[in-house]
Amino acid sequence: MLEKFIATIHKLKIFFFLFILISFLSVLGTSPLDLGKFIGAQIGSAVGIKVTAGVPANPFNTLALQLKEKEEKLAQKEAELNKKEEKLNKTASLQNKLILAISIGLVVLFFLIILNYYLDYKRRKNEKNS
Q1: What is the pLDDT of residue 50?
Q2: Cα within 13 Å of Cα(18), Cβ side
Q3: How far is CA 18 from CA 14, 68, 73, in A?
Q4: HSE-CB for 76 with a 13 A CA cutoff
Q5: Distance between CA atoms of 65 and 72, rounded to whole angstroms?
């Protein structure tokens, strides 16, 4: 039984190897097709053959390339703006806390002034009655 299992494993070892290889490549974020194109281009450039699998330049695909470049620039600018906005939000948050602290301090001072006037009024009233 074990010998049949081992024989089956030996027959299917290439499939196990391919499964492990594809899994490893997917973890790296690449596909076997991309890897094959890269290896083919490297081998072709070593022998002096240029492998191109593209469409010749025309107004449509050059416009698409320009659009893609502009989108990348806009995405980069958007990321920079997001960083600036976060920085401003942190500064604004600090300013809001400072304004809140000053407001609380002013309310406390106003309350103390009113308390002082009330206590002075009571003291003068007690002095008149004495």
Answers
A1: 56
A2: 5
A3: 6, 35, 39
A4: 6
A5: 11
